[in-house]
Structure to design on (653 residues):
């Protein structure tokens, strides 16, 4: 019963936090104030009833603070490593007829938690097993950690702080410098947990999964580790996925975990097997290095021998050029693999790679393809003297004993990716399926050199389908998105060109001024543009300089052959909103997004702003009874609040 109540609390916490973020950060209302208050009261009552409060509960506020350094502390009992095996049969034999618990071996940072009188008193990292770092304030920001629990005695438990693969990828995408990107979720988690400022930890979505109970005064677990897991779940902790196994069931259980690990969102580098009988496990004692009550199972790397066919040189947006090994396709862990990153020049040289060499490949943690060994060692791969993308010279740089290849053309690497990313963005051409990572791959392979090339990606169909992360369905979705983008507007095109100082609003303003005539815009002088209200000499000069460059005009010409530019009606009737100012908030019924309605208003000469002022003509909000900031401000200034239907009837007829 307690467990089901805690599950309900987790649901309420997630639902209320999502609603609060939408309301305060995005000006959207996912639920009424009445419904929010009802769920909040239910959560508060459950917290009091169960004696559990989760770290990210809206009923508590974790304060942020920074420290000069993390204090050190010695563990009450040493945290030993576990003995390891890669043999499933050896794991089965280890049981010696005893039941045991099989669970994930998560790949994060081990943490020891101490609770006293129902409150989190201390969190310490594993450190060197003897001494760890105190990270109590950081632990309070873990997304799923209970700050208070029902049990009032001293509780000590161990678990793993982890960051999921989706969160890892999201955080890495926000880091522009390739060298600054995190290599794997474990490194990111370690850096996040050991921050001196816990506000940074809070932004990293760190989660905690308990894997063992060290101490719980006065609680009888009937000599059962399964009972300990149940007790921890009742206190509000998320525990590692686990199951009770015997000699008869362990092999099928391992196979079940093996099938799941490839798609498991939480990093795992194996399994842990622990005797279910607590007293029996403790009676076995320990070796000099390992306790005998548990053993770790590491996934046996599935090796395949194949032939290296070529090295592709993949240039990133910072100029770093990484070698990628292309080899004859092999089946690994249920998928076909034909490429693996070699990471840098040091690894390339260490492997002594040469075209035609026989190599063995595997998947690290059953996920990431890697070269294990070069059986030939011809060491004949030539390092390119010129960048494979821009043709400018390359240079090998050594940082911390690691050699990497760089393009010395400072302009290309940073700008090319950014320009294409802007061009396909939502406010520009709005092409789905072209992430920055995908664009980088297409540029590396020479599929796209200028914007018009995006509309000819079908020429590379076979290559794209066989790219990692792609397939027939992804390719078809991409081509459909590109075809849809052919029908666009001139403001979107002008913004997407990436002209300095020309944002979305300026692009729309210029197009309206020149009656959506691209030729007139290209011929305009600095003087003409500077005379437009809101433009000024800086914007005018940037626009004219861009249009003067022959290569830019040629690219625009090539692009126009691929596009159907929709021109809005320009009669006097269609400009009926000239001089009027509107604010849009909340969800809409007739338009896919507020941006769509905003664009229509601007086409008719109106202006859409983000906040209500005395100059606002009206606030468009389908919930006139909302207590949002905009509604309050509109009522205070006596600005009319119109529903979407009222606005359409009054202004868009």
């Amino acid at each position: 019963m307690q467990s089901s109540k805690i599950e309900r609390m987790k649901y309420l916490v997630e639902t209320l936090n999502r609603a609060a973020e939408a309301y305060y950060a995005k000006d959207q209302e996912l639920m009424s104030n009445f419904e929010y208050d009802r769920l909040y009261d239910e959560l508060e009552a459950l917290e009091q009833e169960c004696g559990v409060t989760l770290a990210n509960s809206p009923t508590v506020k974790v304060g942020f603070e920074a420290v000069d350094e993390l204090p050190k502390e010695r563990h009450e009992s040493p945290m030993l490593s576990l003995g390891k095996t890669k043999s499933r049969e050896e794991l089965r034999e280890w049981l010696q007829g005893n039941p045991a618990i099989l669970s994930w071996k998560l790949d994060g940072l081990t943490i020891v938690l101490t609770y006293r009188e129902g409150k989190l008193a201390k969190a310490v990292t594993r450190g060197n097993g003897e001494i760890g770092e105190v990270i109590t304030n950081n632990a309070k920001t873990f997304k799923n950690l209970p700050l208070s629990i029902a049990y009032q005695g001293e509780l000590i438990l161990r678990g793993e702080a982890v960051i999921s693969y989706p969160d890892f990828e999201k955080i890495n995408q926000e880091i522009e410098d390739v060298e600054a990107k995190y290599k794997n979720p474990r490194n990111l988690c370690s850096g996040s947990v050991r921050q001196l400022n816990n506000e940074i930890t809070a932004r990293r979505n760190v989660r905690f999964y308990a894997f063992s109970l060290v101490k719980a005064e006065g609680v009888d677990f009937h000599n059962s580790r399964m009972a300990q897991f149940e007790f921890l779940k009742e206190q509000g902790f998320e525990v590692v996925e686990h199951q009770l196994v015997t000699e008869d069931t362990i092999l099928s259980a391992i196979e079940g975990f093996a099938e799941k690990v490839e798609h498991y969102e939480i990093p795992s580098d194996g399994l842990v097997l622990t005797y279910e009988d607590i007293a029996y496990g403790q009676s076995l004692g320990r070796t000099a290095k390992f306790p005998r009550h548990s053993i770790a199972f590491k996934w046996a790397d599935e090796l395949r021998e194949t032939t290296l066919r070529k090295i592709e040189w993949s240039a990133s947006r910072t100029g770093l050029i990484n070698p990628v090994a292309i080899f004859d396709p092999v089946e690994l862990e249920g998928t076909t693999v034909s490429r693996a990153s070699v990471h840098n020049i040091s690894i390339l040289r260490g492997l002594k790679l040469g075209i035609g060499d026989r190599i063995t490949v595997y998947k690290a943690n059953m996920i990431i393809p890697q070269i294990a060994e070069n059986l030939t060692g011809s060491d004949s791969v030539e390092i390119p003297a010129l960048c494979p993308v821009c043709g400018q010279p390359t240079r090998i740089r050594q940082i911390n004993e690691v050699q990497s290849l760089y393009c010395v053309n400072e302009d290309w690497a940073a700008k090319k990716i950014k320009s294409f990313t802007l061009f396909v963005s939502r406010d520009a051409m709005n092409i789905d399926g072209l992430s920055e990572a995908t664009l980088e791959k297409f540029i590396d392979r020479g599929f796209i050199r200028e914007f018009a090339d995006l509309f000819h990606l079908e020429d590379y169909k076979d290559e794209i389908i066989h790219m990692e992360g792609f397939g027939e369905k992804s390719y078809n979705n991409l081509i459909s998105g590109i075809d849809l983008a052919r029908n666009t507007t001139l403001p979107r095109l002008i913004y997407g060109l990436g002209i300095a100082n020309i944002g979305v609003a300026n692009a729309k303003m210029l197009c309206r001024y020149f009656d959506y005539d691209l030729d007139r815009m290209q011929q305009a002088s600095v003087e003409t543009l500077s005379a437009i209200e809101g433009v000024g000499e800086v914007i005018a000069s940037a626009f004219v300089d861009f249009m003067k460059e022959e290569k830019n005009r040629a690219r625009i010409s090539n692009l126009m052959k691929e596009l159907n530019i929709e021109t809005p009606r320009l009669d006097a009737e269609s400009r009926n909103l000239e001089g009027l100012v509107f604010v849009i908030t909340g969800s809409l019924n007739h338009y896919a997004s507020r941006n769509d309605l905003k664009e229509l208003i601007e086409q008719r000469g109106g202006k859409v702003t983000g906040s209500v002022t005395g100059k606002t003509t009206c606030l468009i909000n389908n919930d006139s009874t909302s207590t949002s900031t905009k509604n309050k401000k509109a009522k205070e200034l006596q600005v009319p609040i119109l529903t979407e239907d009222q606005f359409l009837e009054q202004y868009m007829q």
Remarks:
- The chain has a mean pLDDT of 84.
- Residues 56-298 form a domain with the D-amino Acid Aminotransferase; Chain A, domain 1 fold (CATH 3.30.470.30).
- The CA atoms of residues 522 and 547 lie 6 Å apart.
- The longest helix spans residues 2-25.
